[in-house]
């Protein structure tokens, strides 16, 4: 029974026999000992035995039970009452409260009781918490409540207890195997409410085990992993409730982190490509197909948190070691990439976490190159908008993925790109490079590389010829990239190679635009004369061979005979002792590749300066010419009147010496 003595408290008339006057009593009206009667701040008292008898009696009117629980809740909020309860009778109310949850199919009473349980666990010691976990899990392990509303309340109570964990609550669960079996059985029921509660309990159990056991799989849940995965995916596929989806996704995510997906894939790979059968011989849906189908509805949820959680689950799934390219291909063929592109389009880049997770998924799906390329056309316009968004945020984690996907779009689907797309992407990337040069927002080296690759693909796209404004962007981009490379050359060597190639392609592009865009051409020539030439001449001893070859290749592409022959550029090169510098390169890098590049560049200089395609003799003899200039003089001393090869080499040497002597380069 429940007893309280406070004149200002209202209570039902049927409880009048529990009221006492405001004076200390040694017993309650039922004669229970005073040691179990606790005083309240209002001057009343609560007999713990009367309270326990009332709330644990299935015949008690629910209105009385609810009132008693509310008065206990009010009393517990008083520090003195709570102190006395937890000091002298910490375990007294554990059993009655658990019994209350299991007795009444009343949601309000269940909520009141669970709130009291949680408050006692928060305020009490670990032993009180452990006893609550043990008693609640025992009820669920026994299955005595069947699958009723009371079972739902008990599941919710266990979920709340696990969520407020103290130490490792798994140690208080006595019969783990029976508990898991009952939970797995409950997952197969058609009730979404029961499924939601079970999924949350399983999620908390698995997450806590992961926190305490690490990556070891030596817990009871391992024996049920395959079934839990399948039932969870089936629940995710069928449910229309976002709260159930979130619990399901949370469970699947922690299972993925613990490597259970990988284990199932390994087992199923030995069993004929994931195919399982039921007891009646009916073939089950393969796990990878079930996963693909299950995530589609959550991806289209109106709740962005559900969408983000689903995307993160896909990332976990694709990142586990057991997923092969074939499984990735299944997701792409099941249109998951299309769903992700649609999420990005509809979100308008308003949710940063949604953008980041979406691009992570697309990046992982791109492993299945062939089917993924077929989906790029769907998402190209959306990806341009995403790039515009992430480019404004310094060090945005999705910059690299968005650029990589765009680069793949441009390279593999050139027909989908419009001239306006090209202009917009070039403006965005120019802005990113400018911020890096100005120091407003530094750029990761990998992003710089992909920017250059993307721009090269854009320039080579057929649509670039209809986008004359890209030439203006390329002027700025050319200056920015070289400035960045020269500033960070010692740290990021590979950046220079990509920048040199971009300059080469941009220079060739300046001839393809109609009319020829001389401003871009002059810009690149100015970069070569004022920045690259002084830098390479001064730092040749510190420059890598590949970079030196890249510079020589760029210079040669400028000097190749065409309608436009930059005589001034050739004059600048030779006036800068280029012949001597070239043989210095041969001394530093005595490789066949360097020899070919040096002599071909020298032949182009001869073509421009001497004219009449006179450099052809140097190109013809290049394979036989020596790398050491001293050997050139030795070659001239050879008698070769009847040896056409020697005569050809001597002619080439004389031409090189003659051209260099015109500029006093000895």
Concise account of the structure shown:
This protein has 666 residues and is mainly α. The chain contains 32 helices and two strands.
List the main descriptive attributes of the protein structure presented here.
single chain; 666 residues; mainly alpha; 1% strand; disordered N terminus; PRD1
Structure report:
This protein has 666 residues and is mainly alpha-helical. The chain has 32 helices and two strands. It has helices spanning 48-55, 62-76, 79-88, 94-103, 107-123, 126-142, 149-163, 176-187, 192-213, 225-238, 242-257, 260-269, 287-294, 296-299, 304-319, 325-333, 336-347, 352-365, 369-391, 399-412, 419-438, 445-460, 469-487, 493-512, 518-538, 545-559, 567-575, 578-588, 592-610, 616-621, 629-636, 644-662, and strands at residues 37-39, 45-47. The chain has a two-stranded antiparallel ribbon with strand order 1-2. The longest helix has 23 residues, at 369-391. The chain is elongated. The termini are far apart. Mean pLDDT is 85; it is low at 1-25, 270-275 and 277-282. InterPro entries: ARM-like (IPR011989), ARM-type_fold (IPR016024), PRD1 (IPR044968). This is Armadillo-like helical protein.
Note the main sheet: 2 strands, antiparallel
Enumerate how many helices there are, as a single number.
32
Helix fraction, binned, reads: 55-70%
Q: Which parts are unreliable, with pLDDT below 50 for 5 consecutive residues or more? A: 1-25, 270-275, 277-282
The quaternary organization reads as single chain
* Physical arrangement of strands within the biggest beta sheet: 1-2
In what range is the share of β-strand residues?
under 5%
Whole-Å distance between the termini? 114 Å
The overall pLDDT, averaged over residues, is 85
3D shape:
elongated
Specify the structural class: mainly alpha
User: What is the count of β-strands?
Assistant: 2
Q: Could you tell me the radius of gyration in angstroms?
A: 39 Å
């Amino acid at each position: 029974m429940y007893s309280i003595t406070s004149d200002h408290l209202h209570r039902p008339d049927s409880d009048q026999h529990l009221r006492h006057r405001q004076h200390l009593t040694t017993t309650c009206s039922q004669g229970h000992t005073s040691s179990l009667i606790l005083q309240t701040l209002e001057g009343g008292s609560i007999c713990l035995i009367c309270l326990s008898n009332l709330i644990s009696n299935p015949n008690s009117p629910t209105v009385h039970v609810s009132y008693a629980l509310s008065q206990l809740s009010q009393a517990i909020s008083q520090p003195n009452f709570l102190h006395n309860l937890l000091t002298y009778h910490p375990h007294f109310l554990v059993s009655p409260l658990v019994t209350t949850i299991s007795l009444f199919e009343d949601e309000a009473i269940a909520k009141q009781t669970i709130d009291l349980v949680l408050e006692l666990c928060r305020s009490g010691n670990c032993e009180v918490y452990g006893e609550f976990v043990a008693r609640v899990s025992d009820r669920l392990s026994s299955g005595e409540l069947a699958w009723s509303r009371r079972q739902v309340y008990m599941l919710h109570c266990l979920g709340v207890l696990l969520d407020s964990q103290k130490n490792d609550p798994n140690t208080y669960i006595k019969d783990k195997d029976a508990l898991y079996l009952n939970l797995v059985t409950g997952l197969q029921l058609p009730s979404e409410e029961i499924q939601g509660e079970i999924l949350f309990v399983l999620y908390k159990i698995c997450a806590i085990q992961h926190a305490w056991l690490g990556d070891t799989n030596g817990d009871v849940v391992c024996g049920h992993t395959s079934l839990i995965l399948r039932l969870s995916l089936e629940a995710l596929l069928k449910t229309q409730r976002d709260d159930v989806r979130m619990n399901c996704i949370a469970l699947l995510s922690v299972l993925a982190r613990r490597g259970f997906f990988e284990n199932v894939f390994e087992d199923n790979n030995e069993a004929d490509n994931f195919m399982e059968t039921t007891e009646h011989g009916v073939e089950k849906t393969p796990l990878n197909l079930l996963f693909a189908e299950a995530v589609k509805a959550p991806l289209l949820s109106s709740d962005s948190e559900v969408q983000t959680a689903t995307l993160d689950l896909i990332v976990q799934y694709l990142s586990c070691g057991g997923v092969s390219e074939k499984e990735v291909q299944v997701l792409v063929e099941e249109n998951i990439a299309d769903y992700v592109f649609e999420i990005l389009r509809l979100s308008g880049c308003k949710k940063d976490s949604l953008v980041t997770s979406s691009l992570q998924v697309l990046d992982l799906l791109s492993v299945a190159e062939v089917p993924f390329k077929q989906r790029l056309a769907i998402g190209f316009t959306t990806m341009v908008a995403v790039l515009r968004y992430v480019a404004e945020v310094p060090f945005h984690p999705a910059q690299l993925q968005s650029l990589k996907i765009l680069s793949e779009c441009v390279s593999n689907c050139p027909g989908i790109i419009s001239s306006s797309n090209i202009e917009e992407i070039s403006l965005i990337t120019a802005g990113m490079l400018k911020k890096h040069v100005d120091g407003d927002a530094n750029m990761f080296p990998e992003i710089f590389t992909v920017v250059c690759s993307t721009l090269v693909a854009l320039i080579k796209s057929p649509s670039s010829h209809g986008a004359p404004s890209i030439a203006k962007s390329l002027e700025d981009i050319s200056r920015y990239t070289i400035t960045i490379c020269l500033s960070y050359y010692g740290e990021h060597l590979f950046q220079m190679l990509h920048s040199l190639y971009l300059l080469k392609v941009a220079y060739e592009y300046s001839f393809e635009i109609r009319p020829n865009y001389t401003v871009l051409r002059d810009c690149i020539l100015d970069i070569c004369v004022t920045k690259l030439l002084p830098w390479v001449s001064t730092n040749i001893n510190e420059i890598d061979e590949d970079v030196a070859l890249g510079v020589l290749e760029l210079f040669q592409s400028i000097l190749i005979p065409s309608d436009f022959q930059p005589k001034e550029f050739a004059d600048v090169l030779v006036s800068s002792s280029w012949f001597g510098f070239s043989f210095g390169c041969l001394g530093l890098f005595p490789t066949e590749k360097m020899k070919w590049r040096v002599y071909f560049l020298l032949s182009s200089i001869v073509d421009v300066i001497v004219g009449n395609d006179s450099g052809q003799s140097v190109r013809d003899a290049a394979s036989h010419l020596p790398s050491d200039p001293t050997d050139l003089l030795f070659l001239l001393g050879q008698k070769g009147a009847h040896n056409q090869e020697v005569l050809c080499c001597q002619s080439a040497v004389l031409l090189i010496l003659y051209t260099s002597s015109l500029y006093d380069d000895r």
